[in-house]
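subagent[fold] <- orchestrator: predict structure for attached chain, return tokens only, no commentary.
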Amino acid sequence: NITCQSSKDVLKYESAGARALFLPPGANPNAFSPLPLPRDIPVSFIGQCYGARPQGINWLRSQGIQIQVFGKGWPSGELAFSDIIAIYSRSMVNLGFGFLLDSFQTGLKGRDFEVPLMGGLYLTTYNHDLADCFIIGEEIDCYRNETELRSKLYYYMEHPDIALKIGAAGRNRCLRDHTWTNRFKTILN
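subagent[fold] -> orchestrator:
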């Protein structure tokens, strides 16, 4: 028996005769729970500074997007877990870069479930597996290119009520379907 984080891998293993199960990461609601803080950071990104990320951040800033970045390789440096939770709680939009390393291949990550569980809007690179886990535009949102990313960020900055509504729906979806308890039940069943 094999668990896969990509639906494409399931077919690959099944064709080799294995019993495969698509099982994306989950999130722990005891660890990833929003703090009662004002959402005073319009856009944030938490993650390492590598690959295309610095160019993407610089491009967003050149487009007038006030994005705050945190993590290893950025001026903030690495953060304590409590600081990460506070930043997610304070952010209206939490930006994700879904590319794996320096490629243009996307893959599911823990943050794809941890960030929505925090209740702010999660805006990340489109990934067909992620679209199978959430209703895009209602529970999280995705972009396919720079133009779409810029357009969506402008829209959500002008409509924070919609960003918060999507963020709340994403949290509810995670609590219902995407906790580690759900994942373990799926394996055991």
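orchestrator: received. Logging for downstream: The CA atoms of residues 64 and 154 lie 9 Å apart. The two ends are 13 Å apart (CA to CA).
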